[in-house]
Design brief:
The complex is a heterodimer of chains A (105) and B (157). Chain A is an alpha+beta fold and 105 residues long. In chain A, strand 2 and strand 3 form a beta hairpin. Helix content of chain B is 17%, strand content 38%. Classes of the chains: A alpha+beta (105), B alpha+beta (157).
Chain lengths: 105, 157
């Protein structure tokens, strides 16, 4: 399975998506996350492992703990998709807005 | 027009238009049918109209010749002429998403640069909420995505 495919499959689980959103907004350790979510520490670790395998989060050692944070490459594909969509759409919008201005008496 | 990719789950696109801010806002919202790509609609069939209901709680509605209506966005903020926010109630398989928790949001901010020039910043965020259907999207992106092609692929299932 390609990385970007794996990414959204990983995000299909509501708890995992919530953990991802939390990690994306603030890098955190497993212990911190386990405090905030109604799931066990091993379950949090498992969710983080899936997210990491999917390229959505990365971790680094900070003393004895591992800090998880957003992996910026993870959602690049879905971003590219919408970026292309909106770039094209906004160009059309600009053309119409410019034109309607010229037509004003 | 420039595009930047912050390391986040959002897309940001911006442009300048040669129009006063009130007009820029109106063209984007109530005039959406004048610039939206006619191929960018969810259902097959003849499209009669595309309407942006100009109020919080309104929808963007596509109406078809056979009477069907497709509401694919909820207006979450409506602050003319400065800002509008609507939900993106569409799955990555290009169907209407009925679960609000799985929808992303589009925020459009208008700033007057001069009397007849407006800076428009569109941010499509919370993209991580689109958690399903990624394989078909990958295929669409991988072969040089256009929506027309994607609609063909989706309807061929």
């Amino acid at each position: 399975m390609a990385d970007h495919s794996r990414a959204l499959v990983a995000l299909g689980d509501p708890t995992r998506r919530a953990i991802f959103e939390r990690v994306a907004s603030r890098p955190s350790s497993v212990v911190e996350l386990a405090h905030e979510f109604p799931v066990s520490r091993p379950a949090v670790s498992q969710h983080l492992r899936v997210l990491k395998d999917a390229g959505l989060v990365r971790d680094r050692a900070e003393g004895a703990r591992r800090i998880y944070s957003l992996d910026p490459a993870g959602l690049a594909a879905v971003r590219d998709y919408f970026e292309q969509f909106w770039r094209t759409s906004l160009a059309s919008f600009r053309d119409v807005a410019n034109r309607s201005h010229e037509e004003e008496p | 027009m420039t595009t930047t990719n912050p390391p986040s789950t959002s897309v940001r696109v911006e442009t300048d238009v040669e129009a006063p801010i009130e007009r820029a806002f109106r063209v984007f919202t109530e005039g959406i049918a004048t610039w939206w790509d006619p191929d960018h609609h969810l259902l097959d069939g003849e499209l009669l109209s595309m309407t942006f209901e100009p109020r919080v709680g309104g929808h963007i509605v596509d109406r078809y010749a056979d009477g069907r209506e497709c509401r694919w966005a909820r207006v979450l903020a409506y602050e003319p002429p400065n800002r509008v926010v609507f939900s993106w109630d569409i799955t990555l398989e290009w169907q209407v998403e009925t679960d609000p928790a799985k929808t992303s949001e589009v925020e459009v901010a208008f700033t007057a640069v001069a009397a007849d020039r407006t800076h428009v910043v569109l941010t499509h965020h919370k993209l991580e909420r689109h958690g399903t259907g990624w394989e078909s999207m990958r295929d669409a992106v991988g072969r040089g995505w256009t929506l027309a092609r994607y609609a063909d692929a989706a309807s061929a299932r």
